[in-house]
C-alpha cells in the first residue's frame, strides 16, 4: 500500500491561492493575459458549480464521445507477466484518445463565455484533432499550432484536422515540436483574447488551466475506480500507471485514486523526463520542473512519442512527486516500440506511442520483480496507435519481424 494516502477532501483538490500546488503552478503571464486568465477562472468556477453545465458535458461525453470507456483485462499479457493488468481504454473514446474529455469541457465553457473561436497547440495531433472536432460540433472556428517536425511525423492527424475544418499553422522555431507550438499559441492568444478561447491540451499553463484540465479529465479516474471495484476482488488496484507528457491523462486517472492505497506511477519519456531530470523553472505561464541546461535555459526534449516531447510537466505532478504521493519513472524510446508490438500481439490493441510508455514500464517492472507477482495494475491506455503507423513502419524491429514482412501487402508498402 502507498506510503502516503491523501485524505479524500485533500486528494487532488482545488489548488491553493493563485493556483499553487505547493511551490509549483501559479500564473506567470504577460500583463495582457492576466484579465483573460482571471475571466477564465471565474467562468470555470461558475460553470463547474452549475448542475446544467455538468448535465450538458455528461451528455456529450456519453452520446458523442462514447463514455464510459471500457476497462479491459489484458488477459494474455497478464498471464505472461504473472500479474493482473487492467487497461482503461481511452483509445476507444471518439477521436482516439483522452484529449476529447478536456476539449469538450473547454469548448462548452468557451461557448458559454461567448467566445467564437478556439486556439490550440498540439504535439501528437490528438489534442488538435479533438479541438477541431469540438469546433465542428459546436460551430466554433479552430486554429491549431503545430511544430513542423510533428506535422511531418503525424501527417494523418494533420489531414484529419483539416478535414474537420481547422486551420493548422506550422511552427518553425526552436525544436519545431510541442514546446514551440505552445509558445506560438500563447502569443496568438494575446492578439485575440476577446473572441478566442485558448483550449490548452494538458494540465499545464497558467492558473486555472492545470486545475481545470485535471477536473475535465477526472472522468477517467472516476470511471476506472468504479470499474476496478467491479473487476477486482480487492476493489482497488495495487498500482495505477499512466504516461506523462504535460500530464493530463495521468492527472485525470490519479484523481480517482489519490485517496486510496493505490501506488500512483507516472511514466515519462526518458528524453522528456522533467520530474526525473528537471529543475524548478518557469515556462508557458507556470512554475514546475523543467529540463534546463547549466545556464537555466530550457533544454529541448526528445521522444519518439510527440505527445511526450515536452521539457516540462504539469505543476500538480511536480507537487505529487514532492510529497511522495506519486512516483515518476522513465522509459526510453528503445523500450517503447517492443511494448507496442507486445500489446498488439497479446491483446489485439495497437496503443499510441505515448501510451506504450506506460505499458513498457509495466513489462519491465513485472519482469524485473519490481512489481510483485499477482499485483493488480491499472494502466491508462491514453490513445490508439493509428497515428503512429508511419513511425512504426520505419522501425527496423518491424522489418526484421518475419510475421510482418511475409505479408505481401505490407512488403509492397515498405
Ligand atoms: C495519446 C496520447 N497520450 C498521452 C499524451 C500526453 O499528454 P498528457 O500527458 O497531457 O496526457 C498525448 C499528447 O498528445 C497523446 O496524444
How does this model look, in words?
The chain is α/β, with parallel strands linked by helices. α2 crosses α4, α4 packs parallel to α5 and α4 packs across α9. The chain binds pyridoxal-5'-phosphate (PLP). The site of pyridoxal-5'-phosphate has 20 residues, from α5, β9, α10 and α14.
What's the SSE blueprint?
Blueprint: E1 20-21, E2 24-25, H1 34-48, H2 51-63, E3 71-73, H3 75-81, E4 84-89, H4 99-112, E5 117-122, H5 126-138, E6 141-147, H6 148-153, H7 155-163, E7 167-171, H8 178-191, E8 196-198, H9 209-231, E9 239-244, H10 248-255, E10 263-269, H11 274-277, E11 279-283, E12 286-290, H12 315-322, E13 326-331, H13 333-347, H14 353-368, E14 376-381, H15 389-393, H16 396-399, H17 402-405, H18 408-413
Helix pairs in contact: 2-4, 4-5, 4-9, 5-7, 9-10, 13-14
The structure holds pyridoxal-5'-phosphate.
Residues 97, 123-124, 126-127, 202, 243-249, 307-308, 352, 354-355, 382-383 line the site of pyridoxal-5'-phosphate.
Strand content: 15-25%
Number of DSSP strand runs: 14
Helix content: 40-55%
What small molecules are bound in this structure?
Answer: pyridoxal-5'-phosphate
Shape: globular
Residue windows where pLDDT falls under 50 for at least 5 positions: 409-414
The description of the largest β-sheet is: 6 strands, mixed
